[in-house]
Every structure is written in structure tokens, then in C-alpha cells.
Design a protein that fits this description.
30% of the residues are buried. The protein has one domain: Alpha-Beta Plaits (2-Layer Sandwich), CATH 3.30.70. With 135 residues, it is of the alpha+beta class. Helix content is 38%, strand content 13%. Strands 1-3-2 form a three-stranded antiparallel sheet, covered by helices on one side.
Length: 135
């Protein structure tokens, strides 16, 4: 019961922040079906970010890699959970790189300053923020 309440709370907060972070320009936000952490993820690692808009961008970057089936980033925990159908050795660094290329630091790869600076204001996280190292 507590887990269900927590998931509902996270969903409401994520949606609220996603709407509040939208800017009036032509930035497209991709909706992702997974609002909570994936059950039994094959890869989990820390990613810095702030809001629902960050969540969409981080998940979209991970899903852009061939072989990634599901991606879910937790705003509260700063953890990206991944399910994949590919060999983990061949895909893990590619996922970290795609997320970093979208402007977000992972526990392995830091985003280039230019990519970070191109993030919307609400998405420009504290680059010293602690992230959990899982894998």
C-alpha cells in the first residue's frame, strides 16, 4: 500500500513539474510509458537532473540506443533503470554516452559544457549534486 501511494505521489509530482517546466518554444517532449522504476532492471546507474522535463529527455536518450526496451529515471533517486535485449557489455557505455550527449551527467560520463548550457533553465541541475553509483 505504501509503495502504491509513493508511486502515485511520484507520478503526480513528475507530471506537475513536467507541465511547469515547459517553455513556450518548439521543444518537443516525448512521453514515456514508465513513470516509476522498472521491476528487475538489467542496468541501473546515477544521472543528474531536476524535473519532469529532465526525466523525458533522459529516458528518450536511453531509448534512442538500439536494444534498449525500457528506460525509467527517478527524479528523487537520480537513478536510471534500463531493460535491454542486448549484451550489457556492448550497450552500457552507449547508453551513458547518449544521456551525456543530451546534457546530463551520468556516473561514468559528464555532459559537455555546451550540451549542459543548452538545457532549459529548470533542467540546469547542480553539477556537484551527488548521484548514486549502482553498477
Amino acid at each position: 500500500m505504501k509503495y502504491s501511494n509513493l508511486l502515485c505521489f511520484i507520478l503526480i509530482i513528475s507530471l506537475t513539474l513536467s507541465v511547469s517546466c515547459q517553455q513556450k518554444n518548439n521543444v518537443k517532449t516525448v512521453s514515456v510509458n514508465h513513470e516509476s522504476s522498472i521491476v528487475n532492471p538489467e542496468i541501473s546507474f546515477g544521472v543528474r537532473g531536476n524535473c519532469g522535463m529532465c526525466k523525458s529527455t533522459i529516458e528518450k536518450a536511453a531509448l534512442s540506443i538500439d536494444g534498449v526496451e525500457e528506460a525509467s529515471w527517478s527524479k528523487e533517486l537520480k537513478i536510471l533503470d534500463i531493460k535491454t535485449k542486448s549484451n550489457l557489455d556492448s550497450i552500457t557505455v552507449k547508453i551513458h554516452q547518449a544521456v551525456a550527449d543530451s546534457g546530463y551527467d551520468t556516473e561514468l560520463i559528464s555532459a559537455m559544457e555546451e550540451n549542459y548550457n543548452n538545457l532549459p533553465g529548470c533542467c540546469q541541475y547542480n553539477r556537484e549534486m551527488a548521484i548514486t553509483i549502482n553498477n
